[in-house]
Write a structure and sequence with these properties.
The complex is a heterodimer of chains A (107) and B (116). Chain A is an all-beta fold and 107 residues long. Helices cover 0% and strands 50% of the residues of chain A. Chain A has strands at 4-7, 10-13, 19-25, 33-38, 45-49, 53-54, 62-67, 70-75, 85-90, 97-98, 102-106. In chain A, strands 2, 4, 5, 6, 9, 10 and 11 form a 7-stranded mixed β-sheet that branches. In chain A, strands 1-3-8-7 form a 4-stranded antiparallel β-sheet, with no helix packed on it. The radius of gyration of chain A is 13 Å and the shape is globular. Chain B has 116 residues and is mainly beta. Chain B has no helices and 11 strands. Chain B has strands spanning 3-7, 11-12, 18-25, 34-40, 47-53, 58-60, 68-73, 78-83, 92-100, 102-106, 110-114. In chain B, strands 2, 4, 5, 6, 9, 10 and 11 form a 7-stranded mixed β-sheet that branches. A 4-stranded antiparallel β-sheet of chain B has the order 1-3-8-7, with no helix packed on it. In chain B, strand 9 (92-100) and strand 10 (102-106) form a beta hairpin. The radius of gyration of chain B is 13 Å and the shape is globular. Classes of the chains: A mainly beta (107), B mainly beta (116).
Chain lengths: 107, 116
């Protein structure tokens, strides 16, 4: 199975900060990667699909990049509603695998 | 707007079988998408369980493959998860979801606790 390694595991940031989360695949997955946001007690929400495409209805302050093994989720200017846990998911091949998650906390 | 709703028992005993149903509204289950199940132990990360195509093709996580079955009932616009030989490690929130490339719509999740 492809392993997805996210970093950092957690981070503290202030409103307005630029935040970057990375995900590394144990083998190449082309651009078959999605990014999800999960708030406490809620289901995850798709933010980015195909590594860099913004899901409909998602704020443009979220962006994704990468291809092959290294991927990045960037929040350009952190807003109060962005404090949450973020996961990457590879859907290149089965079994699908998630990263372990990155919790973004208020500084 | 697509909506998915999980239903099933919330408390089961070790060795029992979990059966969950996901009812889909706002989208025909036969419209060409895949449908999936994901779980999340309390306070932990997400684990993909498996996907099914409306015609019945299934893909399972090898870590659960011997215990899991996903099926679809197009007449009821539902799909289901069955997980046998439960242990405490199966305690989790179980989500059903629509798969369109990525997982684009999720149910709200249902907590399943395995305890004697």
């Amino acid at each position: 199975a492809i392993q997805m390694t996210q970093s950092p595991t957690s981070l503290s940031a202030s409103v307005g900060d630029r935040v970057t989360i990375t995900c590394r695949a144990s083998q190449g997955i082309t651009n078959d990667l999605g990014w999800y946001q999960q708030k406490p007690g809620k289901a995850p929400k798709l933010l980015i699909y195909a590594a860099s495409s913004l899901q409909s209805g998602v704020s443009s302050r979220f962006s994704g990049s990468g291809y092959g093994t290294d991927f990045t989720l960037t929040i350009s200017s952190l807003q109060p509603e962005d404090f949450a846990t973020y996961y990457c998911l590879q859907d290149y091949n089965y079994p699908w695998t998630f990263g372990q998650g990155t919790t973004v906390e208020i500084k | 707007q697509v909506q998915l709703q999980e239903s099933g028992p919330g408390l089961l005993k070790p060795s029992e079988t979990l059966s969950l149903t996901c009812t889909v509204s706002g989208n025909s289950i036969s419209s060409g998408y895949y449908w999936g199940w994901i779980r999340q132990p309390p306070g932990k990360g997400l684990e993909w369980i498996g996907n099914i195509y409306y015609r019945g093709s299934t893909y399972y996580n090898p870590s659960l493959k011997t215990r899991v079955t996903i099926s679809v009932d197009t007449s009821k616009n539902q799909f289901s998860l069955k997980l046998t030989s439960l242990t405490a490690a199966d305690t989790a929130i179980y989500y059903c979801a629509r798969v369109y490339g990525d997982i684009d719509f999720w149910g709200q999740g249902t907590l399943v606790t395995v305890s004697s």
